[in-house]
Design a protein that fits this description.
Helix content is 69%, strand content 0%. With 85 residues, it is an all-alpha fold. It has a domain of 59 residues. The longest helix has 31 residues. The radius of gyration is 20 Å and the shape is elongated.
Length: 85
């Protein structure tokens, strides 16, 4: 019977690949949004009222991961077509 620590290297490579496919776009998205916000900061409204509270603009998780995926998708596609297929 095999122990849990004796996993073949393919399993470890797959696990590392899955983590990289998730973590790299998040990191790239955060970096891209931070660079974008240096040049185009979020403008705060002059007056706070109930009408403007719902219109608050901020960078959420899905915006960050979407930007990361848009920037990383061509690189992931190139790696897939070059090394996997």
């Amino acid at each position: 019977m095999r122990r849990g620590g004796d996993a073949p290297w393919e399993i470890w490579a797959l696990l590392l690949g899955v983590i990289a496919v998730v973590a790299i776009p998040i990191a790239v998205g955060i970096l891209a949004i931070r660079i974008y916000r240096v040049f185009y900061p979020i403008v705060q409204p002059e007056r706070q009222s109930l009408a403007t509270l719902g219109l608050e603009e901020r960078d959420g998780f899905f915006k960050i991961i979407f930007i990361g995926w848009v920037l990383c998708a061509p690189i992931f596609y190139w790696v897939y077509t070059t090394y996997v297929i």
